[in-house]
């Protein structure tokens, strides 16, 4: 959504912009596997708290990034946080909700993720247009 604005500000090539997206996409599945294993060892709630903090912190730091390298690092952090969220969150839902409510709980969770993303795109574009991407 804000790729063109960031590209211009940092004088990035299309390859570098792709690298920002790839940093996220590469880290996401790796974190999902590693953090799922850690969630089984350390506890799901602990890992969920850790990855939400990582995801949120990396997102906030993106706004103060001063270089392409910093942008890459923050995108890696967002990818790790988001990737590490899914497995323990879904497992936690299955632990909390009885069998006859599990599918509904997972469905509501999935809808929340998608609606939250959709709202985020609209809000980020609106805010960036009014105040700048940072």
TrEMBL record:
Gene Ontology MF: a single term: transmembrane transporter activity
Domain Major facilitator superfamily (MFS) profile residue range list: 1-134
Main location per the UniProt record: membrane
Coiled coil feature spans: none
InterPro entries, per the entry: MFS, MFS_dom, MFS_Efflux_Transporters, MFS_trans_sf
One term under GO cellular component: plasma membrane
Segments traversing the membrane: 20-38, 50-73, 106-131
Keywords: Cell membrane, Membrane, Transmembrane, Transmembrane helix
Gene3D superfamilies according to UniProt: MFS general substrate transporter like domains (1.20.1250.20)
Compartments it resides in: Cell membrane
UniProt topology in membrane: Multi-pass membrane protein
Protein name: Major facilitator superfamily (MFS) profile domain-containing protein
Annotated organism of origin: marine sediment metagenome
């Amino acid at each position: 959504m804000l790729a063109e604005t960031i590209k211009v500000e940092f004088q990035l090539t299309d390859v570098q912009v792709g690298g920002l997206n790839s940093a996220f996409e590469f880290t996401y599945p790796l974190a999902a596997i590693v953090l799922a294993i850690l969630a089984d060892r350390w506890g799901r709630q602990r890992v969920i708290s850790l990855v939400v903090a990582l995801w949120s912190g990396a997102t906030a730091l993106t706004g103060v990034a001063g270089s392409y390298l910093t942008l890459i690092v923050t995108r890696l952090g967002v990818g790790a946080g988001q990737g590490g969220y899914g497995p323990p969150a879904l497992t936690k839902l299955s632990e909390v909700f009885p069998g006859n409510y599990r599918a509904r709980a997972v469905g509501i969770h999935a809808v929340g993720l998608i609606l939250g993303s959709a709202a985020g795109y609209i809000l980020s574009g609106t805010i960036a247009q009014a105040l700048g991407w940072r």
